[in-house]
Amino acid sequence: MTRVLVIFLLIFLYPHTKSIGQQNDVFIKAGLLYDSKSNQLFPNKIIHIQGSTIKSITGFRKMGKSKKVIDLSDYTVLPGLIDAHTHVLFSQEANEDFADHSIQTLTMESDALRALRGAKRAESYLKEGITSIKDLGNSGLYLDVALRDAINEGTIDGPRIFAAGPILSAVGGQVYGVTHQHQNIIDLEYRIIKSSEDAKNAVREHVNQNVDLIKICADNLPNKAFLTTEEMSAIVEMAHAYDLTVTAHCITNQSARNAIEAGVDGIEHGFNLTDSTLTLMAEKKIFLVPTENSRSYMETYAKLIGDDLDGMDWVNGYISRGKKRLMTAIEKGVPIVAGSDNYTKMGVSRGKSSTDMLRTYFEAGMKPLDILQSATYISAMHLNKEMEIGTISPMAYADIIAVKGNLENDFISTMDNVVFIMKDGKVYKNIGDSSK
């Protein structure tokens, strides 16, 4: 009884005491605000953040001295960026063979060491203003799920991870040259599908481990095996029953056609998509995640592997084909999702390497705001999370960045000048910080 009386007196005597939610209220003054849904810039907005979420967006108004205000009135404020194709648990030197390094990783790198290295790479994305990533396998047996959970609980800093778990693939996975008696090693990195019924069970296994989406290999070149349309259909049917999206790694056009027929939600890479396949994707609103790189990236890569820069016709062809495919996809109305697929050591952090996707799309001819929409709202739509991330709107997570410069007239330099980073309402970089 005495305890109740004390509580009552405290409330009565101190009615001005703030609630927990009010104590966490923050107001951001945005000189320009990028609305990713409408793909427009709006001047002079105030973003009201309460805890980890956005409460409202209003026009400029006078703020009381008691309010916590972050003044970004000289900057452009954007939703946190999304890289929709990452492999944070895998890394290799430019001159290393993918298969050889995969075997080395699986046999000579413990899960603990792999996860710790992955944690450092993950944090580097956040430092570049990439507040969410879609991580697509090559991550052992659900190490991506563990890393996601460690970030979500605050044990380590990093972007919001949407984890796919082991890639569902035909025999051999993407690791070529492994003899029959050692194929069990592949099971440490891929979920090998043996039949349509097994495909359904594989999805259930992933659901049981709490993945966020399903990734499949419609083809797994240079291995010759591939998933059948029936197996992919079984995967899609089961995944959709659990409200999970399915995205498909596709190198050949035929594998993409098979995956589309099976009902997948997205195509990763799609280097060899024909115009007719792009038309079909546009009709079915199937997302495309282009993963080419810019000329400067490719020149650096060529140097790392010892290529003569004077004889780089292959780079010109690579860039030309990527540009043609991307612009054709846009013209046809295929929804474009930004993704880097950068897992090669390039002399910079993984997060910094990831931002090359913005330069790549810009050099290919995409308009600046369209690139931003692909790296925010459209990417969030691909994950069925457009109400939560990739947008600055009420009830969304407070994943917010700010850049200095003119987005429409100086896109690359501006996006390379991130001056403010917030995720979940927590500030990780503020104006005036000396660290990049």
Your description of this structure?
Helix content is 37%, strand content 21%. The chain has 16 helices and 16 strands. It has a seven-stranded mixed sheet with strand order 3-2-1-4-14-15-16. Strands 10-11-12-13 form a four-stranded parallel sheet. The N and C termini lie far apart (56 Å).
Briefly, what is this?
37% of the residues lie in helices and 21% in strands. The chain has 16 helices and 16 strands. It has helices spanning 2-13, 20-23, 98-108, 111-126, 143-152, 196-208, 229-241, 253-262, 275-284, 295-304, 313-332, 350-354, 356-364, 368-374, 377-382, 411-415, and strands spanning 25-35, 40-50, 53-59, 69-79, 81-86, 130-135, 160-163, 167-169, 190-192, 214-217, 246-250, 266-269, 287-289, 400-403, 418-423, 426-429.
